[in-house]
TrEMBL record:
<dbReference type="InterPro" id="IPR050469">
    <property type="entry name" value="Diguanylate_Cyclase"/>
</dbReference>
<dbReference type="InterPro" id="IPR000160">
    <property type="entry name" value="GGDEF_dom"/>
</dbReference>
<dbReference type="InterPro" id="IPR043128">
    <property type="entry name" value="Rev_trsase/Diguanyl_cyclase"/>
</dbReference>
<protein>
    <recommendedName>
        <fullName>GGDEF domain-containing protein</fullName>
    </recommendedName>
</protein>
<feature type="transmembrane region" description="Helical">
    <location>
        <begin position="52"/>
        <end position="69"/>
    </location>
</feature>
<dbReference type="Pfam" id="PF00990">
    <property type="entry name" value="GGDEF"/>
</dbReference>
<keyword id="KW-0472">Membrane</keyword>
<keyword id="KW-1133">Transmembrane helix</keyword>
<keyword id="KW-0812">Transmembrane</keyword>
<feature type="transmembrane region" description="Helical">
    <location>
        <begin position="102"/>
        <end position="125"/>
    </location>
</feature>
<feature type="transmembrane region" description="Helical">
    <location>
        <begin position="76"/>
        <end position="96"/>
    </location>
</feature>
<feature type="domain" description="GGDEF">
    <location>
        <begin position="167"/>
        <end position="296"/>
    </location>
</feature>
<dbReference type="InterPro" id="IPR029787">
    <property type="entry name" value="Nucleotide_cyclase"/>
</dbReference>
Amino acid sequence: MAALFLGSNLYLTFSKKPDIKWAERLNLLLGTLLCWNQIYTASFLNPVGLEGFFVLFAMTSLSVVAFSYRRALQVIAVQAGVGIVLPWVADLFFNVLTGREWLYMFSMETIVLACVVLQTAVAWFKAQFDQEEARRLMLQEQASTDPLTGLRNRRAMLEQLQEAQFEESCLILLDIDHFKKINDQHGHNTGDDVLCEVARVLQDHVSDPHQVSRWGGEEFLVLLPQTTAPEGLRLAEKIRLQLAEHDFPQVHQVTASFGVSDSQPAEPLRAWIQRADQALYQAKRTGRNQVRLAGEDADFAVSTHKMPLKRSEGH
């Protein structure tokens, strides 16, 4: 039983993604078995059997730290009952205590009470820490998330770009074509819906949603780690076609212009982003709804296919 307890606690300590519910059930089962063993010891042997309580205390201490506050209090309550109440109940029925043993019992129960208080304090402080950590993570998530689209915001993406610029990576900068006209003709609520829909389309084309960010206004930036320029171009073209074919509510069709740039050795982050921005500017200047690679000939666009624009209802 001790080996199972030790294995369970080692699992909680070293596993990257432990199954907390499974570990809770196992520890409660083992704790119950230990309690029954303690009942037998305290009832039919002698008060010295109370020392077995400290085995129970040691084995469940990590469980108190690992589990929820509510479950920790349940474990502590069981231990308090076993360590404090049970010996007196056993003496009431079996009269196993002598005068000297009564003094020993009081001294042992003082230690037991101290153990229970210690575990309760540890569980409480752990619960407070968990609440503060959850609050910190929530604030951190809010500070790095665009409130409208739910994507990473510019600040969070800049941190990711700083890590990715020293390895082979590619970024795609895109801007929704004629977005001001969408707001003017259909209202800002429709414009917000378009931004959210574009965000969903972009996230569908990447493995990690955190690779997509709202860069500002109607601009989006997609970071592609361990991606070459040709691979980035292919993905940008795929996204361009998907957006052009997507049926947006009220607006029906939305297109975007794309600038693609790959990271260069020893290139500052600002220069990497600027090259993508210049490529995007070229795509806008030469007709929109196309993909440009940073540094390519201004007279050549990677994709120049134009889809016929669908007319909105009533326009």
